Amino acid sequence: MTKEKTNVESFDLDHTKVVAPYVRLAGVKEGEKGDVVTKYDVRFKQPNKAHMEMPALHSLEHLMADRIRNHSTKVIDLSPMGCQTGFYLSFINHNDYEDVLDILEKTLNDVLAATSVPACNEVQCGWAASHSLEGAKSLAKEFLEKRNTWHIVFTE
Ligand SMILES: [Zn+2]
Fold first, then answer.
1. Percent of the residues in the chain that have a pLDDT greater than 70, as a whole number
2. Residue 126 Cα to ligand 1 middle (Å)
3. Is the pTM of this model over 0.90?
4. Which residues sit with Cβ closer than 5 angstroms to ligand 1, an ion?
């Protein structure tokens, strides 16, 4: 398939050539004052082969968004991809890839230890009925089991 270059980095990624799970540096932006924002593609599921079910993905998002900030003050945002295969994770002034992997490992171990999902109520969440703590833990466990291959992004 031929495709034209787009305005979005991930649209130009060949999703048939990646091997999930992985953590990929997807972009770096420097501001006028020298602050640097780095964005990572944290891929849990193999594109077009598997995806996360919404309640599990949603609870994993809540848990990771909360716990990751215990391990880094440089996190800007963690958000799910619409294709339900992974998350985007952004940092400010933090460009140490190996440390990002360590932060994710600690965060996901926290998810395994969780006994409830933070903010899953109608005041703090937009779809409070759609959650699964057990589903989130099972996604975290599966991702952690492949910890030693997170840095391998592409097939040869
Ligand atoms: Zn929510």
1. 98
2. 5
3. yes
4. 125
The pLDDT score that the predictor gives to residue 42 is: 98
pLDDT in the model for residue 118 = 98
DSSP string, the chain: ------SSGGGGS-TTSB-SSEEEEEEEEE-TTS-EEEEEEEE-S-TTT----HHHHHHHHHHHHHHGGGT-S-EEEEEE-TTSSEEEEEEES---HHHHHHHHHHHHHHHHH-SS-TT-STTT-S-TT---HHHHHHHHHHHHHTGGGTT--B--
Instruction: For each of the domains in the chain, give its residue range(s) and CATH number, in order of start.
Output: 17-149 (3.30.1360.80)
Q: At 156, is the pLDDT very low, low, confident or very high (cuts 50, 70, 90)? A: low
125 CA from centroid of ligand 1 (Å): 4
pLDDT band at 155 (very low <50, low <70, confident <90, very high): confident
Average pLDDT (13-29) is 96
64 CA to centre of ligand 1 in angstroms: 12
C-alpha 1/C-alpha 88 separation (Å) is 26
User: How far apart, in Å, do the first and last CA atoms of the chain sit?
Assistant: 19
